[in-house]
Amino acid sequence: MTTSTLLHPPSEWSARVAVLQDGASYTYGELRTRSRLRARQLLASAGTADLDGARVGFLMAPGFEYVVTQWAIWRARGIAVPLCPDHPGRELEYVIDDADCSVLVGAGETGRRLEDPARDRGIPFRSVGGGPEGEPAPRASDALSLPRLSAERRAMILYTSGTTGRPKGVVTTHGQIEAHITSLIGAWQWERNDRILHVLPLHHTHGIVNALCCPLYAGATVEFSGSFDPVATWDRLASGEVSVFMAVPTIYAKLLHAWDEARPRRRTKWSRGAGALRLLVSGSAALPVRVFERWEEITGHRLLERYGMTEIGMGLSNPYDGERRPGSVGQPLPGVELRLVRPATARVLAEGVEAFEPDASGEIQVRGPMVFSEYWRRPQETEAAFVDGWFRTGDEAVLEDGYYRILGRRSVDILKSGGYKISAVEIEELLRSHPAVRDCAVVGLPDEDWGERVAAAVVPEPDASPPPDAIEALLEPWVRERLARYKVPRAWRCVEDLPRNAMGKVQKPAVLALFDVGAQPLRTPPG
């Protein structure tokens, strides 16, 4: 099978429901017809029979029109550049300019935000949607056959979160996307009768490939929920109509909070319904062990945590059938080659599930058919990202009894203080286990003597509500009893919420800005 199979579902699927949205259902036959029509219109408006890699930026709410537009761009052999509805204008324009989009496509009020950027840049803006009758009438030239796709053609540019600099465009081909899809379909046992409740943004690989392309490739149904609402989500999970759910840890935490506030009868209904789902996946950020354990406690279901990133798709996953360990991201997925390397010496410490040293920890490096091709128009950064064909993720992990546990990003989650290397993730995990802490983020503040000092921004539980100036007095002695002295935070902030991006990832540079660097002396040297 090739990725074009995704765009050409078998004829026997024509009457199957592909997408559910706002009470309306759309079949695979409608998706095929509408996407072919829109592809021809894109070609006709461009005056060509082949977009030949032209970048098409598109902006619209998640739903059927998004899928039609994505497929249409691919059918016309363009490169899809999905834009984020939640991004401010400046960030949208950065992506449009960096990708050098030649046309912008939008639907509804959300899509009209592209009219001004298009006019300012002198590029076409196409408004779409409203059903076949709302599309521009095709011209005679539109009846021409669509160009054929090949696996090596560029398909999509997704932009990184920008946690280590300006966002970079990650280019993937149709073949790389297919390799990603088929790996997950096998590992997570996607079935034609599945229905996924889709609550994720559609400008990241988690929402696009894991939760959209995989079910459509398998002939399953994607149900779009609109804006995330914890109570409405619980009701759908408990309906008996949904079999798969994928979310970021923040969403699971909000669902748990809603469950705690619900009446006993509703809790029982929700717990029983969610426990009957075939698969619940957590990703895009570390899943707190407390959330994992609490979810199992109230539903009987052990969340499946996995590890991936824009550049590699999914690399690691806890098993579908088998032990799902809290705090672990499991083992390499089918088709993924993965190893741990000590960056300073380039020594390979582990490969696959075989460790060459006890409790080997190092940088994750990945190789395989799903790894991206290049950073868009950044040849030097592309070259620097690979070593001997292995992609350097910048994430550190440890292999423990055949399972990988993420320590964090070397740039923001691995702190160095007084000669010690400290995992921010480890400290965050401990802090979240305190009953007064709802969430937290640990960062390293620059320090002349020690390199970095550990700092913690804490979101308290509402019923705990310690005064801001009492957070340190409450938590520091408790942490000191449980961690080595050099890991104990020396600076604390009590905050209402943590800065996050659209995928729920905490933005560590923004957390650093919460602290007045240098305002608090390092009272106790680490050691």
Structural topology:
Elements lengths: L3 H4 L9 E5 L2 E4 H19 L8 E5 L4 H12 L3 E4 L6 H11 L3 E5 H4 L3 H7 L3 E4 L25 E6 L9 E5 H15 L6 E4 L6 H14 L2 E4 L5 H8 L6 E4 L1 H13 L2 H12 L3 E4 L6 H11 L4 E6 L3 E5 L13 E2 L4 E6 L4 E5 L2 E2 L5 E7 L6 E2 L3 H6 L1 E2 L2 E11 L2 E7 L4 E4 L2 E4 H9 L4 E11 L3 E10 L10 H10 L10 E4 L13 H6 L14
Parallel strand pairs: 1-10, 3-4, 3-5, 5-6, 9-10, 9-11, 11-12, 12-13, 27-28
Antiparallel strand pairs: 1-2, 7-8, 8-20, 13-14, 14-15, 16-17, 16-19, 17-18, 19-22, 21-22, 22-23, 24-25, 26-27
Helix pairs in contact: 2-3, 7-8, 9-10
Describe this structure in words.
With about 525 residues, the protein is of the alpha/beta class. The chain contains 16 helices and 28 strands. A hairpin with a 3-residue loop joins strand 26 and strand 27. Helix 2 packs across helix 3, helix 7 packs across helix 8 and helix 9 crosses helix 10. The termini are far apart. The C terminus is likely disordered.
Number of domains: 3
Class from secondary-structure proportions: alpha/beta
Mean pLDDT across all amino acids: 90
**SS elements, strand count:** 28
Strand content: 25-35%
User: Termini separation (Å)?
Assistant: 57 Å
Give start-end ranges of low-pLDDT stretches.
Answer: 518-527
CATH class (first level) name of the largest domain: Alpha Beta
CATH superfamily of the largest domain: ANL, N-terminal domain
| DSSP summary: helix tally | 16
The biggest beta sheet reads: 9 strands, mixed
The CATH topology of the largest domain is Rossmann fold
